Amino acid sequence: MKPHANPWGNWRALPRRWLVVSSLWLMPLLSFAEERLAPADEIRNILENQSLYIKPPYPDNWNNWGISQIKAHLQAVDKWASLGMPPAKNVNMVGIGADLYQQAGNYWLLPYEDGALNYAGIDDRVQLLRVDNQDIQGMKLKQVAALLKKPLGQTLRLGICPVNQFCDTPQDIVVSPQPYRFTPVQVKQLGQHHVINLLTFTAQTPKRLRQLLSTKKPPKNHSEPQLDPMRQPVIIDLRDNWGGDLMATIETLGIFLLPEDEIVSFKDKHQQIMPFYASDDDKIARRYPLLLLVSQRTASAGEIFAGVLAYYGVAIIIGEETFGKCVSQTQARLRNGQLLYFTNVEVLLPEKQRCHDIGIRPQRVLDHHQIYDQPLLSEILTVFIAREKTPP
């Protein structure tokens, strides 16, 4: 008999060892400049009890190591591990409003909704070639990020090239950094289709999806498009979803599944398995499967979300094979105020299927150029939607 479904949000219902908030972020923590003697004995006790990868024996002089030495040892075994003082919270973010990332030696900007880059007329990813007339080829990611940081009131001149296009001469645009708020769930236009752009999983993700996919008639002053999964397949874009909060991901999956459906399982260092099941909370009514867009950048929570929904036939996956990071990290605050961040569990799909170092293979495979070719992708989605709406 299956155990009782997890009461979402009630963390006290979880065993004590699971109370530490887990995340499925692909991005490593920021490096910390402050060097001090680390509480090595405390770190060792935490890792021995919880770490999935880091195991004895430890170096003989471990207790005399500082942050840099211990961090190097951690990352040699667990590439997601980090150690240092927590970064300051930046409540009022000012910038160009875009995600900067590196892929195949090139730098790319993914504009956020209502960010400065979006207001400058850029609504899709672009390749970044120059910043203030300075060629960024060969620079490190931190160096490029530093060039893009300017205070409110100043301007940046960016040399960009649209996706899937070769530029002899990059297009120059002027962007003024502005305050912005990152929104993890956005609605965008892809050709003739409205697409839910799901960038990450937070506590607000399930609520936001319920709002967007509600079959209730919206109020007259409602400006967002109505995405009714009872009328046609809904498209969710996971191409840039690098992860998010693990429990928020589980809760989001639950709104698409039947009560008591197995969602995922955690496997810890002791090979103990802890399954999670869908609750009987409000579900999203649908007649058609979801269409999920994925890429090589789809990782962690994003690929777990896709893999679970595909397993139950709730979704059809279109795109590239995903990254293959199905492990979760947690953080522990040390007595000196530092944060220890390390991998603590492997996340398994239903029926204990592994996806770590494997990834999720789409039902409709596209290559890297096709998945970012907007006209072609729009045509493919049109074909899928017509096929799903045609009676057998």
Gist?
By secondary structure, this protein is α+β, with helices and mostly antiparallel strands.
Structure description:
There is one protein chain. This protein is an alpha+beta fold and 392 residues long. The protein has two domains: 1-88 and 182-392, 2-enoyl-CoA Hydratase, Chain A, domain 1 (Alpha-Beta Complex); 98-180, Roll (Pdz3 Domain), CATH 2.30.42. The protein is built from nine helices and 21 strands. The chain has helices at residues 40-50, 67-77, 116-119, 141-148, 205-212, 246-254, 301-311, 368-371, 374-389, and strands spanning 22-25, 82-84, 93-95, 98-103, 106-111, 126-131, 134-135, 156-162, 171-175, 178-180, 185-190, 193-198, 235-237, 243-245, 262-267, 273-277, 290-294, 315-319, 327-333, 339-348, 364-365. Strands 1, 2, 14, 15, 16, 19 and 20 form a seven-stranded antiparallel beta sheet that branches. Strands 4, 5, 6, 7, 8 and 9 form a six-stranded antiparallel beta sheet that branches. A six-stranded mixed beta sheet has the order 11-12-13-17-18-21. The model is unreliable at 1-35 (pLDDT under 50).
